[in-house]
Amino acid sequence: MELEFLGTGAGQPSKQRNVSSIALRMLNERNEVWLFDVGEATQHQLLRSNTRSRKVRKIFITHMHGDHIFGLPGFLTSRNFQASETSDNGRPTDIEIFGPRGLKNFVINALKYSQVRLQYHIKFITAAPGKIFEDDQFVVKAYPMNHGIEDYAYRVEEKSTAGQLQVERLLDLGLKPGPIFWSSQNRRNDHFR
Ligand SMILES: [Zn+2]
Which domains does the chain have, with CATH numbers? Predict the structure, then answer.
């Protein structure tokens, strides 16, 4: 899992720092990228990075100030032309967008008035304090921030997974097999018996 900072500036872009966007690259964990905020020209920053737009499957928007969302309609439109290697019909994969009230209207109207017809589906999830996403790997929780308008920080938690007993290393260390050792081996295979 890697964090890639696509923009760390605020208010307006500078030559050195673009406005807000962070890519959470989870290529090993689930072959996906999640974006946090999509400031203006985020798609240009992505072109300069190793992150592919087609891998972006979830977008989390912290708040509705323009330096955090003005790149979203352009990003979604360009993504229309980037078929996923995993979709069976050549279309880009569907995407989920989490964010404050008003975000859905902003995106839908921007796409509507610029006559964009997306080939993929967007699912909008309105953020609220607490758990906003959970699957068997990750939990995402939203925390309200004090910023003058509705604003959230997002916490991404990876769930614990049971490890595997490294039998060969235990034997190398001279540890004698006990009940836990055998139950572990029975789950995996019983060739050590
Ligand atoms: Zn702001």
Answer: 2-158 (3.60.15.10), 162-193 (no CATH)
